[in-house]
Amino acid sequence: MASTSVSQGRVALVTGAGQGIGRAIALRLASDGFDVALNDLQANEANLVSALAAVEAIGRKGCYIFADVSQETEVEEMISKVVEELGGLDVMVCNAGISIMKSIFNTTAEDFDRITSVNLRGTFLCYKHAGKQMVTQGKGGRIIGACSGTGKKGQPLFSAYAASKFGIRGLTQVAALEFGPHGISVNAFAPGPVKTPMYDHFETIIGTPEGVLEQELNKTAALGRIALPEDIAVVVSFLASKETSLITGQTINVDGGIVFD
């Protein structure tokens, strides 16, 4: 079904779009009327092909681009390809991220660098080069980062991940101040636990029977359940809309009531 949204004709780029939250965001924005560029690593090509087919089935144009967001030249090339393929860039969703589950004592310096390189450095590079493109276009834009509840309240076994996500909150505030004069808003979303392949991986590491971890996590949320990827996509849709032009520098919790601030 083709979208008739007021966002029709605008262009969004979603990193880490092959699966989970990124895929849900891409499909939601397509439903909102955006043409959507999908990014992930080449190893996830099959997932990108599937996601692109879903975007096109909604009636929107799309493309997919391989890039490692921790590499500046690849991010620059990614932005250029989006503009070339789809005609511009109105919304940048910096969703790509990775994590590990280790104590500080067991986390190596290489582990720490790998997590922060993708999560924090990658977000910085996407903010930087998407922002430059939007300034060049001269019509404002929306930049949206992926924080986490762990970026507001540290959790045991997630030191590198927490450091990267706390950093994204600060980066988002600075970018909001610097990009604001150009009509560019910069915000982030902060999910709690979300039912994604990453969640399933951690469930396997912990070794709990299927469904037990989810039941325990549900008890920590005021609304009694953890999020689905589509719950996160709703908030990104809101932040990407033209109607949210006065919201910037914020990191919005999407966790069913686990973290309050």
TrEMBL record:
GO molecular function, one term: quinone binding
Superkingdom classification of source: Eukaryota
Biological source species: Armillaria borealis
Gene3D superfamilies cross-referenced by the UniProt entry: NAD(P)-binding Rossmann-like Domain
One BP term from GO: fatty acid biosynthetic process
Assigned keywords, A-Z: NADP
Family to which the UniProt record says this protein belongs: Belongs to the short-chain dehydrogenases/reductases (SDR) family.
InterPro entries: NAD(P)-bd_dom_sf, Sc_DH/Rdtase_CS, SDR_fam
Protein's UniProt keywords contain Ribosomal protein: no
Protein name per UniProt: NAD(P)-binding protein
